[in-house]
Amino acid sequence: MKDISSDVLGSWSRAVTTCDGCWQIRGYFSQNCTFIIKNYLTGGLLYYGHLSMRGADKICDEELWQGTAKAAEGHLAQVLWSKAKDEDLKVEVNWQDADSSSALGFRYSFPNELESRVMLCGGHVGRAHGKKLQELQSKSTVTTQFIALHKEQFPNIQSVKCCCAGKKHRFVSKKDKPACGCIGPGFIQSAKRNHYCALVQADNDPEKYRATMLTLGKYHSRDIHSWEGGLCSFHPLVKCSCKKCDVDLNGFCPEMKCSGEAYHSAHVLKCDFHGLLYEIECANRAKDAEKVIDPNLGKGHSNLPESSFSVLTKFRAKDINLHQTHYQASTNLGLLQSCMTWCYKVKGPEYHWILELYSRMGLPIIDGIQEM
């Protein structure tokens, strides 16, 4: 990164990073935590840190973590970003999930939101979208706080009623599709797919993502695909009916050979109440368009740190809380292994971290050890 010209995106002066934290054992009471920062464009590991609650002073001179497991991630984020700041790293874009503790740690060292932008992982946004719809699925009324929050933009929220209020949902042949037209499991799966398509089709344009989400919420979910002044631009109004026409990646037929048939949404929200709740949810996602779609990079993700963490399970037990030294040694070996893709690109296919490690430690190198 330091060898790249300072005006090039991805250099030390215009870094694109991604970060995340993990615990040895998933859950709030795990006693070991790791946080890493990676180069988003190359996958190279830039910074890492560990915190442990267990260990012996006579073995390790590092202090044990006295706080909670959840607070450990935010603390490590603050420490590592502060170190990056001290080394003159200038972050232009940082991709992460919507975890507030790590975002606060980043902002502590990079407070200027115009110079250093925090972008949200598209996959995490999509999962949050699905979880919110699962929450709305069970609702037949909303709270007064919810009404007060949205009544200015959506005045109908004050009077709209669920068609199934006080009753159980009626399902058609498949249990995932309520006959009443409320939000059901099938609609939620379809909405998650539509959100992913909105991310992909937006390319590098946040406004396109915003427009697609608003259209999905207000029209597409109600099986309305053309209206005065607009139409659904992300699918054809007439689709092939013979199954023989050539279709492009977006479902459009450049040269339709048959008469075709009108496009209809697979899962239609006929319930005015749930239709409005979905419209509000899509409008909330549209507000974060600039945090989801980058003008230079498009949609992004935080898969690089998470893929590193998936390697760690091969190097340390997941059902036993290790002591500090054991945890750090095992985790560091896993982090070395997780960087092999970057090492192959930079140092060539003959390189292996274990050979360099053994050489530095003065240990004998056994034939074939890198294949073990």
Indicate the CATH class of the largest domain: Alpha Beta
* DSSP strand tally: 11
The ordered H/E elements are EEEHEHEHHHHEEEEHHEEHHHH
Uncertain residue segments: none
Terminal CA distance = 32 Å
Structural class: alpha+beta
The number of domains: 3
Write out key terms for the chains shown:
372 residues, 39% helix, Nucleotidyltransferase, domain 5, alpha+beta, 5-stranded mixed beta sheet
Characterization of this structure:
This protein has 12 helices and 11 strands. The protein has 372 residues and is an alpha+beta fold. The chain has 3 domains: 179 residues, Nucleotidyltransferase, domain 5 (2-Layer Sandwich), CATH 3.30.420; 123 residues, no CATH class; 40 residues, no CATH class. The strands form 4 sheets. It has a 5-stranded mixed sheet with strand order 3-2-1-4-5, with helices on both faces. The chain has a two-stranded antiparallel ribbon with strand order 6-7.
